[in-house]
Amino acid sequence: GASGAGKSTIISLLERFYDVDHGSIRIDGVDIRSMGMGQLRRKMGLVQQEPTLFGGLSIRDNIAYSMDSHNNGMAYDEEEREALIIEACRKANAYDFIHAWETGLDTTVGERGVKLSGGQKQRIAIARAILLAPKVLLFDEATSALDSESEFQVQQAIDAASEGRTVVIVAHRLSSVHKSDQIVVL
C-alpha cells in the first residue's frame, strides 16, 4: 500500500502500542487485550525499517538480547547459548558476514549500528527475532531502505525465519511479499 494507508498502524495494533477501537485482535483465539504486555511481547518478534542496535554491545550481545530478556525461565549454559546464537545467525543469513570480521560475534556494532550496512543491521535484527522463537514475526518495511543485493539477502533471511510461524510483512513493494500465502493491499 501507499504511504499513509495504515500499514504500520496494523503493526502498532498487533504490538498493542495502542488498542483497537472496535472488534478484537486474537492470537490462537485469545484476545491480545487479555494478555499481559510481557506475555504478548514473548509471542511476537518485531523487525522494523531501522532496527534498534545497542552501540556498546557486541553483535553476539545484540542478538542475544532477546534471549536474555525473554527466556521464559530457561537457563542456558554458555555452549547452548552460543549454539543457539550461531543457528539464528545462519537462519538470518548473517553468519558469513559476521565471521568475515576478525572479531566475529565479538565485533561491537558502534553507536546505533554505524559500523554495519543497512542489510547487515536488518539480518542481525532478524537473528534476534529468531532467537526469541515467537509465534508471530512482524516485519515493518524491513527491506524498503535497502539496495537490491541487500534486499535479496534480507528476503532470504525472512523466508528462513518464516518457517513454522505466522509472519506479517508490511511493505511498499509487491516483490517483498510475493511468496506470501495471503496478500492484503491497503
3D architecture notes:
The protein is an alpha/beta fold. The protein has one domain: 3-Layer(aba) Sandwich (Rossmann fold). The chain has 7 helices and 5 strands, in the order αββαβααααβαβ. The strands form 2 sheets. The chain has a 3-stranded parallel β-sheet, sandwiched between helices. Strands 1-2 form a two-stranded antiparallel sheet. It starts with 6 loop residues before the first helix and ends in a 16-residue tail after the last strand.
Mean pLDDT: 86
Calculate the terminal CA-CA distance, rounded to whole Å. Answer: 5 Å
Q: Kindly provide the name of the CATH class.
A: Alpha Beta
Dominant shape: globular
Strand content: 5-15%
| H and E string | HEEHEHHHHEHE
Q: What does the main sheet amount to?
A: 3 strands, parallel
Number of domains: 1
Number of strands: 5
Low-confidence stretches: none
**Spatial arrangement of strands, main beta sheet:** 3-4-5
CATH homolog superfamily: P-loop containing nucleotide triphosphate hydrolases
DSSP helix fraction? 40-55%
CATH architecture: 3-Layer(aba) Sandwich
Specify the number of helices.
Answer: 7
CATH topology: Rossmann fold
GO molecular function: ATP binding; ATP hydrolysis activity; ATPase-coupled transmembrane transporter activity
Keywords: ATP-binding, Nucleotide-binding
Protein name: ABC transporter domain-containing protein
GO cellular component, one term: membrane
